[in-house]
Amino acid sequence: MYCFRCGQMLVNNSANCPSCDTPQKRKQRRRQRLFLGLFIFLSGALVGSFVDSIFFQGKTWDYSIFASLSRDSDKPMCASETVAEAHLYSEKSDAAVLSAKIRAEEKMLARQKFVSIPASMSNDVTDLRKKTSKEPESLKIDVKTLSKSELGTETAEILKTQISSQTATATELPGIVDSSSNTVVITEQKPPEKPSSKFPDDDRPFVYDSVVSLEDSKGVNYHGSYSPDSQLLVFSASRPEIEKEKYQVHIKETGKKVSSTRLFPWPGNVWTPEFSRDGKHLVFSSDSQSPEHIFIYEKDTQKSRQLTAGKGKNMMPAISPDGKFIAFVSSSKGNNDIWLIGVDGSGLSQITSSSHDDREPRWFPDGKALIFTRIFDKYKDSRIMKIDLNPAGEAVELAGGKGRKWLADVSPDGKHLAYVVSENPDGSENKIVVRNISNGKEIVVAPFKGAEHFRPIWSPKNDGFVFHIDKKGKKDLFFAKLKRSDKK
Predict the structure, then answer these.
(1) Which of the residues in the chain have pLDDT under 70?
(2) Which residues contact 28 (CB under 8 A, 6 or more apart)?
(3) What do you get for the CA distance between the two ends of the chain, in Å?
(4) What SS3 class is residue 14?
(5) Bond from prior residue into 291 cis (ω within 30 degrees of 0)
(6) Sheet of 349-350: strands edge to edge?
(7) Cβ(189)–Cβ(174) under 8 Å?
(8) Among candidates 77, 376, 298, 294, which has minimal Cα distance to 85?
(9) In this structure, what DSSP letter does residue 195 have?
(10) Where does residue 155 rank: exposed (0-12), middle (13-18), buried (19+ CB within 10 A)?
(11) How many CA within 13 A on the CB side of residue 243?
(12) CA–CA separation, 359 and 455 (whole Å)
């Protein structure tokens, strides 16, 4: 190393030149800055390459400002150039316009894959498309503003073919070409609903066959129902021999002489637990969050979420056949009414607003209507009501007249009601009635003399229902098996 002023050789690590006494720090600082700048450049390149590969799949250039400087005028690469803007390239061929439009849509949809899902949806949503049956608003508006006169007849026909191929693979730009109005119109594509369970069309009336004990262990056992495959029984139970345990969710295998087990520990009381139709979720209410609120539990991940909040009681949840909504009772507006909420916590809506007490909602098998109990006079006059949801309607009476009728459930084939009737004005002597909805014919199921019969919930096989009895303060679970009469 030499002095930058006089050229004299310098001693290693010397601060000043021995000949002219000139400080040498300036040159050392230059070297340090050179190495620092090189290090920052290489680090930036490495980080940029990593971000490009992870978030932009190696196509950062297409999303940058420099892309507009290098692209051809007939190839709109920016996702913001949507379908509505495509017709501005009218000096180009129709095929080029369609090609540009499709590329723009593909880039927009590629970006959507990286949109984060809100935390409120995180546990029950594995695919963003399942959260909505509607397409992005920009796509809907764009398609509706295109006409054959703007795109050209040939382009419209190509678009019709393109859309047909996309809808065949279930996706993003469903639509048809309306030949009568010469416009391209959007058609809403909803995810295919699971087919409802089919049962033989048998008009013969049900008759009571026999009763089977499901759970008669020490403690209280009530509100029992089967899993969708009928392999598990789920219910709310209290076990006094277990210290400090209140009502908890218990399950047991059906058809085997095995003890029930607690599904998961919970800090408060757990009431009215039920599986969704696909068996992946369990919905229940609990006072672990005062006064009482609705929770949903995911069986696979063993995680739970609270769906309701506030000072009113939210209770008696029932999950819809398609697993998307939960009907429940809420006193949030001072009176017990029927409400709906999505399993992700969205879409809260009030279904009934009667001056009477509405409770115990249950779903029709097609998911288009609810039944519930409307109380006109406590213990003395309550009736089973039905309200249509699709389209929305007014509540109508399914089972009424004098006396107390409550705790109803609809059979899987949608043809019968099972509900509780109280014989006495004080609400005692409860028996279960099975009514044919179409003709009003009824049978009574009350196999245990001197016991109160409650809460019938139909088996997925449509061959009977789970219920519990209360005899001298002890509640046990049973299955009432029904069969078809030989006579019509």
Answers:
(1) 1-2, 4-5, 7, 11, 13-15, 21-29, 52-198, 243-244, 488
(2) none
(3) 113
(4) coil
(5) yes
(6) 314-319, 325-330, 337-342, 349-350
(7) yes
(8) 77
(9) P
(10) buried
(11) 0
(12) 13
| φ, ψ (nearest 5 deg) of residue 468 | -130, 155
Handedness of CA 395, 401, 403, 405 (dihedral sign): negative
- Whole-Å CA distances, 434 to 202, 407, 415, 424, 431: 16, 12, 10, 19, 10
Token pair for 305 = 């979420």
* 285 in Cβ contact with 294 (< 8 Å): yes
How far is Cα 361 from Cα 364, in angstroms, rounded to an integer?
A: 10
Q: Using an 8 Å Cβ cutoff, are 476 and 238 in contact? A: no
Predicted pLDDT at 53: 67
* Nearest partner of 418 among 476, 362, 461, judged by Cα: 362
The per-residue pLDDT for range 321-374, each reduced to its tens digit, is 999 999 999 999 999 999 999 999 999 999 999 999 999 999 999 999 999 999
Residue 98, Cβ density class (10 Å: 0-12 exposed, 13-18 middle, ≥19 buried): buried
Which of 488, 484, 432 is closest to 463 using CA atoms?
Answer: 484
Strand partners, 207: 483
pLDDT of amino acid 201? 77
Contact 129, 173 (CB under 8 A): no
Please give the angle made by the CA atoms of 234, 238 and 244, to the nearest 5 degrees.
Answer: 130
The residue type found at 413 is D
- Asked if residues 249 and 271 have their Cβ atoms less than 8 Å apart, the reply is no
Q: pTM for the full model?
A: 0.61
What residues form DSSP beta bridges with 371?
362, 386
Task: Report the SS3 class of residue 315.
Answer: strand
Q: Where are the domains of the chain?
A: 60-114+134-186, 206-484
40's tokens: 């920052």
Which residues, including other chains, have CB under 8 Å from residue 415's CB and lie 6 or more apart? 436, 437, 438
What pLDDT, on the 0 to 100 scale, is given for residue 72?
41
CATH of 206-484, one of 2.60.40.10, 2.50.20.10, 2.40.160.20, 2.120.10.30: 2.120.10.30
Confidence (pLDDT) at 291: 96
Question: Which residues does residue 457 pair with via DSSP β-bridges, in sequence order?
Answer: 466
Backbone CA torsion sign across 38, 40, 41, 45: positive
Q: How far apart are CA 71 and CA 53, in angstroms?
A: 22
In terms of Cα–Cα distance, which of 257, 170, 272 is closest to 212?
257
In the block, which residue shows the tokens 């506030």? 310
